[in-house]
Amino acid sequence: MNVLSFSSHVVHGTVGNRAIQFPLNLRGWNVDCINTTNLSNHPGFRTFKGSKTDAATIADIFEGLVEIGLEYDAVIVGYVASVPNLECIADILAKLSYKPLVVLDPILGDNDKLYVDQNLIPVYKRILQDPAGLVTLTTPNQFEIETLTDTKISDWNSLTASVTRFYDLYNVQYVVITSVNLDGAMYCIGCLDRERTFAVPVDQVPAVFSGSGDLFLGLLTDIFHRTKNLETSLKHTVDVVQRVLKRTLELTDAKMSIGSMPYIPSLKLVESKDIIE
């Protein structure tokens, strides 16, 4: 199986494509990465060097893949560093002559905070609205689906309203809301359509991690491509990610914190190989 992944790259650490490629290689995928950044490490380390990839380079690299006849079973869109980059990726998706599984994580922010250029929001909206159905599955977190639907989620009824609004606005078949805090508990919400949703409870590991969303994105792409069953895929993905986070916490002497929680900027993926395979 072959997958093309658009996401960030760090030389040191396990975020972006570094958190997607190795797990998918373990699961039998050939992973081709187009990197939207080239950084020394994740900014969570508090200092980093490097730069964003320019859109012309992304377009040129993809054209090179086309010229040697490559086609992909799946396409992942993770962290996109700029509006020109996202517009370039949207153009690539629109020009594909075949229909792979396309999984897009509309990375905007978290915990009520936007941490990308706000001008990315309308571009994500256009991609998700495209009449051709460019995206098969999208994975916003609670803040991101609230931003995309202009609907604040505070209880189960407002969650339903946000999901309904999403399907009113966008042309995407499947939605996974990767983290929703309701009634003092955390859930992943899977949506098969506007009427059929389900909730998967998430045990909260007592730390803040970078890269967990990217690992989630890669694993969900894998199992959903294999099973075509969103509920089975989501339960499996949550289970594996939770076990990797627990292993990482056990093996890490956290030296940084966010609020009262230890902050771990790099997942222990090699050390979790037995969990991921």
Please render the helix and strand layout as text.
Blueprint: E1 2-7, E2 10-12, H1 17-26, E3 30-35, E4 37-41, E5 50-52, H2 55-67, E6 74-77, H3 83-95, E7 101-104, E8 109-110, E9 113-114, H4 120-129, E10 137-138, H5 142-149, H6 156-169, E11 174-182, E12 185-191, E13 197-202, E14 208-209, H7 212-227, H8 230-251, E15 256-258, E16 261-264, H9 273-276
Parallel strand pairs: 1-3, 1-6, 2-4, 6-7, 7-10, 10-11, 14-16
Antiparallel strand pairs: 4-5, 8-9, 11-12, 12-13, 15-16
Helix pairs in contact: 1-7, 2-3, 3-4, 5-6, 7-8
Enzyme class: transferase
Protein name: pyridoxal kinase
Keywords: ATP-binding, Kinase, Nucleotide-binding, Transferase
Defining traits:
277 residues; alpha/beta; 3-stranded mixed beta sheet; kinase; 8-stranded mixed beta sheet; transferase; 40% helix; UDP-N-acetylmuramoyl-L-alanine:D-glutamate ligase; PyrdxlKinase; 16 strands; Ribokinase-like; 9 helices; globular
